[in-house]
Amino acid sequence: MSFDTGLLALDLLGVFFFAVSGSLLAARKRFDVVGSVLLACLVSLGGGVVRDVILGVHLPSAFGQPIYLVPPILAAALVYIFFNSVQRVTSLLTLFDAGGLALFCISGTLKAISLGANPVAAILLGVTTAVGGGVLRDITANEVPALFDAREIYALPAFCGAALTALVWHLGWFNLVTGLTIAALVFAFRVTAWRRHWYVPLAVHGWHRQLD
Amino acid sequence: MSFDTGLLALDLLGVFFFAVSGSLLAARKRFDVVGSVLLACLVSLGGGVVRDVILGVHLPSAFGQPIYLVPPILAAALVYIFFNSVQRVTSLLTLFDAGGLALFCISGTLKAISLGANPVAAILLGVTTAVGGGVLRDITANEVPALFDAREIYALPAFCGAALTALVWHLGWFNLVTGLTIAALVFAFRVTAWRRHWYVPLAVHGWHRQLD
Amino acid sequence: MSFDTGLLALDLLGVFFFAVSGSLLAARKRFDVVGSVLLACLVSLGGGVVRDVILGVHLPSAFGQPIYLVPPILAAALVYIFFNSVQRVTSLLTLFDAGGLALFCISGTLKAISLGANPVAAILLGVTTAVGGGVLRDITANEVPALFDAREIYALPAFCGAALTALVWHLGWFNLVTGLTIAALVFAFRVTAWRRHWYVPLAVHGWHRQLD
């Protein structure tokens, strides 16, 4: 499998995970099926479009390669057909979102590197790709972005994943095994932090979080 | 009238319609006149700027061609002078918004085609142009975007208009008459759906909408 | 000091001011330190990224030049260490935001001129740079953007500063002294309007503001 094919597969899988999170949020918000497809597209393709626009890639993959439309349509269809219990929405949404985050911080960093960005820019673009779609999703649906929610650890796993990807790449060790290992670590970090209620200190020294 | 002049006229008329919808929302939200001009600019020029940035057009028309500033300033002035009944805001806003939607899904698709985008990308960019400004307007004014409101059919008319435009163009039948016919169909679809309370099924099979 | 060095210094100082406003808002919203760094980045770098993307600069300075990350990290650290009184947040936030506004309407206009934009486009891009980050900050934090708040005069000082910058530049009079004078005027206009409760008329003729 060539590098480009591998990167495409990684990216499309991340698109699918984020798309499911978008359609699940659409279900919770009681949007209609068109809104479900659109929110799936926004969250799964938005981060990559922002990355490609910043890198000066015209057209961004989501517009130039029609295959990128398959995962969001599939995700909306799966949620339409199989979803029937509102209780599980929050957990499922968080798990699929974590899967997208884990894959996008890698594919975003690699795409930036392959287009000649310096390591710092590549890491920043990896993080932007990973968190961008979710922020667009939450803003559009009028939720507080998980990115800024002090009860969540969200950006930190993406940053670690992007930094690890850039490091492993520059050491020449990047391959399918190391890539999937990084993805698994990011996923585990995000999900464990969520399950165990890990916190980061508040923005001001000495301030303590109020009981929720 | 050349193709470029016709496209510019179509685009400027769409800009004017969306600009009026922006200034009407500014009135309903009790913004000041500066906020009215700014919201008119954001909604009428935002979708096109996003389209041009994605297509790699620098500068986007809204920045490069000062004539694009005339419709939003005119719209804010007309709303300032003639508007005095808050009752009619919602209806008027929806009608002007539908006019902008009908023209932008055509001009957005044509501009993408004229810059060499493939048909699928051109349709997606037509839809993005048509719905982009309205989404920016609603997010900025802290409203639920009409795009995601399950009581509205909003994206579907834009999608049909963009797809029809791409089809008619590729058949070589695009001209002033067919263009205005598509615009009229999109406008009629959107407004009839709104007046008759047409709905699309919800995002999950078997879920029914609650009474509003 | 060369023009480019001067422009960079001006820009970085504006980045720092906006970054402090972002971290102060993060403190008021009780975000954690990671959210504080991210909001500082978004507000201080967002306007410039939007400007560079519109101008077709790849990579935008915020991604291509790592030095742009220093001010937001510094700002989040300063707020973390020294901030301990919630009473002063609103005033401080407004003052730092006004400082960023004053510097960015100048640096944004100059950068657009230096890349060959016409004067109208340069003024529009100066205003976009100046108000863009603050709008992103307020939307993300679910606040009404100060830009649209009828109790604030926000866009007008930025517009005057950008127009003055373009005028003084085209007269060949732009230098450190005239630049700092324009910045001081914009800052004074914004802060005086805020302290003295200056208002702009509402979006509709004859409508009066309700008592707050």
From TrEMBL, chains A, B, C:
Give the membrane topology, semicolon-separated if more than one: Multi-pass membrane protein
* Keyword match ATP-binding: no
Indicate where this protein resides in the cell.
Cell membrane
Q: Which InterPro entries match?
A: Gly_transporter
Q: Which UniProt keywords apply?
A: Cell membrane, Membrane, Transmembrane, Transmembrane helix
Transmembrane feature ranges: 6-26, 33-54, 66-83, 120-140, 176-193
Q: Which GO terms describe its cellular component?
A: plasma membrane
| Protein known as | Uncharacterized membrane protein YeiH
Recorded source organism is Arthrobacter woluwensis
